[in-house]
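Methods — Computational structure assignment.
A single polypeptide chain was analysed. Its primary sequence is given first, followed by the predicted tertiary structure written as structure tokens.
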Amino acid sequence: MTMLVRTDLCGLGGQSVDDTFSLSGAKGPGDLYVAGAGDKFCLLHREKGTAYGESCETEQTIRWEGNLKGELGLSFQLTAAATEKWGINFPGQLVVSHKDGTSLTIYLPGVRSYDPTGRTGDAHASERIGPSCAKFQTTVTVCELAAVLKGASQAQLTEIQAGFDPAMRRYHGRVGLFQWMHRQIEDAAFNKKEVTPYPDYVKEMSKLGTIDLSAENHEHTRLYLESYEKGQPVPPPHYFRKVQVKDKLEDVIKSEDMDKFKSMLG
């Protein structure tokens, strides 16, 4: 069997689970090609963009293949509807259902989602997730879910994640988001438990020294975690100011909502 997994989208708006894991997907640069025959699983993805420290567009290819042990008996249900969790806006959710009836939700970020591990002033990985980063993370997540659906082991899933890591660091820089999305899949599919909240994962990163909360470009992260600890998580003004710069919100939201938004700028 051959699957072309559609990744030509910014986030998941309007994308049904049938389209996402369809047998006839989108064509062109940036598509993720996944093929399976028997227990053989192969993927090929081309990531294009202007990398950190570079001035022109380049391309990097990600390949992985392996023998999968067979289907795990999981089923997925994708809902492309906005929801808020831990004060963060997620445009999609994916429910992972196990044979014993256990159902667990994976939260899918997209364009304009707040990223608490983003860095203020970063060319690619600011507080606001943009189209390029949203598309890349969707690619990685869909790829890993497709592999799990066909029976990938947790070790194989880690190998696939590692294959995408260099391109993520070169073109996008969203290390925390990239790792947390992988953790969500591990939690829901393999560990059969509720996914780790993103703010809790950020605190884990701080303890491990993989994020410096004292840095100036993570002031927004500190403020967000403080609001989370108080039980009222909300993105800080840094995020809303970035959204104001990148998006012409006056053209897409009601005037009363715009007034509320402006009050959050600080």
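Note: The chain has eight helices and nine strands.
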